[in-house]
Amino acid sequence: MILDIDAVSKTFEMHVLDGKTVPGLADVSFSVDEGEFVAIVGESGSGKSSLLKCIHRTYEPTNGTVRFRTEDGEIDLASCPDRDVLAVRGSELGYASQFLDEIPRVPAVDVVARPMWEQGTDREAARERARELLTALSLPADLFNAYPATFSGGERQRVNFARAIGPQPRLLLLDEPTSALDPETRASALELLDSYLPTSTTMIGVFHNYEVVRRIADRVVVLADAELQRVVDVADYNPEVLA
């Protein structure tokens, strides 16, 4: 087991509504084995992205633990100091969201290469790997040295996806990372998850596409109204029954 999520809850306080609290997650528990791909599914507002953000510690859980077995020992991402979270993100924990947070005046190839050279990869070697990933994702070569702020939504998503997988993290979180891609590029992105990442890579991903879930996942976590409904093997997943 590489990740154990135990009784994780997240509530949001709405200051504009006189402090009313809204549940984002309620007592969610499951574990993930090393090398496993777990898909998270559910209707809009069911808590899928909130769960990923609690694992990544973009959100600090209100209750519960998120125990991640790093190469240096176990860490509770729900409660450990921020410096420890940042250290793990820089070495073992990757995250690809739907949207790219652009870095001003940094070309696409360096946006992708930066996490790799921050891990110690030679700068030119990191740039070469970044070019290979962007090529595999069908980003035109004349955009490699352009600024992503000028890109379309699909082009930004390709850069974001390449940046997340570039360092080959041990645990990769995917929040609808291919939602803006055309079917051919989406297929290329999913192929990279198989061909580029080590087989030991553990992945947890939010996807709305049933065929994508059936193709890549080992198990499926089903959420509804911020609560865990069930965890099933992908062969037993039927969106008409479970979602």
TrEMBL record:
Keyword ATP-binding: yes
Any one GO molecular-function label of the UniProt entry: ATP hydrolysis activity
Origin: domain of life: Archaea
GO cellular component: plasma membrane
Family matches, as InterPro entries: AAA+_ATPase, ABC_transporter-like_ATP-bd, ABC_transporter-like_CS, ABC_transpr_LolD-like, P-loop_NTPase
Keyword entries, A-Z: ATP-binding, Nucleotide-binding
Keyword ATP-binding: yes
PROSITE patterns reported in the protein's UniProt record: ABC_TRANSPORTER_1 (PS00211), ABC_TRANSPORTER_2 (PS50893)
Domain ABC transporter: 3-243
Name of the protein this chain belongs to: Alkylphosphonate cleavage complex subunit PhnL
Protein's organism: Natronomonas moolapensis (strain DSM 18674 / CECT 7526 / JCM 14361 / 8.8.11)
